[in-house]
Amino acid sequence: MPSVPRLFARPCTVVVCRGCCCGNPAKQPGTDPGGQLDRLRAAAAEGGFEVRTSDCLGPCDQANVLVVVPSAEGRRAGGRPVWIGFALDDDCTAEFAAWARAGGPGAAEPPLALELQMIRAPRGARTRSGR
């Protein structure tokens, strides 16, 4: 069987905000944003999804914010990027890592706990990743 071109095999991507409020332990006391990113990257290495960071995604009052971007399979099934707010603890990190591992939006149903944390994307939002 021929290999699938990378374009069609793109995995789910989790874009993690690391702007002014998200990822700032001084603004989110009791959190470990560096540890969260380390755990996500470790899960991605084992689970076949990608993790990227972005400058400020916008909704600072709902920090920490992340966006779960569907895999190519999820996109073909109608999945669109899902914004999640208040992503602060280990349980939440494990939930979106498991969802991303399963393909994310369009490929798998989100965990119920994450449905309660879904937020609207800010008007004109783009996920500018690069770090």
Characteristic key phrases:
globular, five-stranded mixed beta sheet, alpha+beta
Q: Stretches where pLDDT falls below 50 for ≥5 residues?
A: 127-131
From the alpha carbons, calculate the radius of gyration and give it in angstroms.
14 Å
In helices, the fraction of residues equals: 25-40%
Strand elements, count: 5
Secondary-structure class: alpha+beta
Topology order in helix (H) and strand (E) letters: EHEEHEHHE
Q: Average pLDDT across residues?
A: 87
**Outline:** globular
Tally of DSSP helical segments = 4
3D structure, described in words:
With 131 residues, the protein is an alpha+beta fold. The protein has four helices and five strands, in the order E-H-E-E-H-E-H-H-E. The protein is globular. A five-stranded mixed sheet has the order 2-1-3-4-5, with helices on one face.
Describe the secondary structure blueprint for this structure:
Layout: E1 13-17, H1 33-47, E2 50-54, E3 66-69, H2 72-76, E4 82-84, H3 90-101, H4 112-115, E5 118-119
Short description:
The chain is of the alpha+beta class and 131 residues long. The chain is 27% helix and 15% strand. Helix 1 (33-47) packs parallel to helix 3 (90-101).
